[in-house]
Amino acid sequence: MAAGRRGAAGPGGGTTARGLRSPVAIGLGLMLIAFNLRPALSSVGPLLPGIRAETGLSGALAGALVTLPVLCLGVFGRLGSPIARRIGPDAGVLAALLVLAAGLALRGLGGLGALFAGSVLAAAGIGIVGVILPGIVKRDFPDQGGLMTGLYTALLCLGAAAGAGLTVPLERVLGTGWEGAMMAWAAPALVAALAWLPFVRARPAPAAGGGGALGSLWGDPLAWQVTAFMGLQSSLAYIVFGWLPAALTERGYDTVTAGLLASVSALAQGVLALVVPTLAARRRDQRPWVLVVVGLPVVGFCGLLLGPLAFAWGFALLLGLGLGGCFGLALTLIVLRARDPRTAGDLSAMAQGIGYCGAALGPFLVGIAHERSGGWGLPAALYVALGLAATGFGLLAARDRTVLPQ
What we know:
Layout: H1 14-20, H2 23-35, H3 39-42, H4 44-55, H5 59-77, H6 80-87, H7 89-107, H8 112-140, H9 145-174, H10 177-183, H11 186-202, H12 221-250, H13 255-280, H14 287-306, H15 312-336, H16 341-359, H17 361-373, H18 377-397
Helix pairs in contact: 2-9, 2-11, 4-5, 4-9, 4-12, 4-13, 5-8, 5-12, 5-16, 5-17, 6-7, 6-8, 7-8, 7-11, 8-16, 9-10, 9-13, 9-15, 12-13, 12-14, 12-15, 12-16, 12-17, 12-18, 13-15, 14-15, 14-18, 15-16, 17-18
Protein name: Transporter YycB
Pfam families: MFS_1
Keywords: Membrane, Transmembrane, Transmembrane helix
């Protein structure tokens, strides 16, 4: 049983602290946090055509706007493990949520400078939270890691769907342009921070210790395989977040319908994001799941880019199911391939920190491929190649082994 569930009293006294450590309370807090980890990313794509029309944003800068936050997930995600050690994982999550809310608010102040700076700040908060959460799951739910990973991944996908589908309607309801629609997403992030505050008070930070074990994982091939799978499947997802609405608009859909298709796809992610971690954690070998969850988004995305428009909703469903399963499996592998919460935190920092940096190349390359080819055939081919690479590394990472820090 993890320390967080033993009922040891925190600074505020026995009963309250024990109540806050209950699995239900912790789980609800994690779900609320998870919902806020994707609207900052998925809300940009539906507004991108309007932003470009209003500001004259070039294709290259539009690609940078899509790519930069993904790169920041990796760059700032590397800070998650040191922050958790210095101030505690609970306080680290709270601080990162406040950074996320500040970035979301900054995006809506107007102008491209604020938009880019706010996107970087929001992605920094998301990257730090994302790295810390697997360690919290390993600590507080040692026997239900698959279930909890599935639940918060499903809520994360719900947040992505909300960002993709509600941002354009928010823009029209608020009547404040794209700036107000982007700023509105700061509100639920602040709510999540307030909900998590009691856990920080009930569980004080540990004494600052020495250096972490992250560097020692760099010599472990399995850690690199988990990292590669995390990065490649993330690249598949962020290509969709950044370019699917624009691709659908070019194929003849209006911005609202394009956003709804992207939202349906994101909403469908929650299904396999919940099912795959729960079932995969029951097996010692997760390789069969790799073939399923990577194949679905490749078929779905290529179908949306090149297939008959009459089947667009079906392709969107396949795409969402696959991406949700990919992300859920990637997070589950981090938990399963680690022997203890500390190693899980270090592996999470490595897999997400390095993986997201590599994932940022995907949306950037798709933007270049589309601009140079003038169509979506070359981007589709690139997506297939990334899917094949994700399958290869996923099959290696899904074997029944654990990383061995050296």
